[in-house]
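Appendix B. Chain record.
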Amino acid sequence: MDSKLRRNYKYRGALVKIGHGKVSGARGLHSSGFREVMVHNATDLDQINPATQAARVGATVGGRKREQIHLRADELGIRVLNRRRGV
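Structure tokens predicted for this chain:
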């Protein structure tokens, strides 16, 4: 009854309302239009469709294996979403 958020006070965040969602066909897609696939080694890239999917390298993957993943992705023509500079 006394909720400041429900009463739309300016210093509170906006309520979630109908119409603020994405188009159903775009849900789950990266802003580039590709569906993200988590990759932890170079063999995971063989299951990716380069036309509709892009790879995201896991955060726990080290530098040596990350470099192998980037080289293999370049060979297969797969986009890597979180490619670091210089690799």
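Further analysis of this model is presented in Appendix C.
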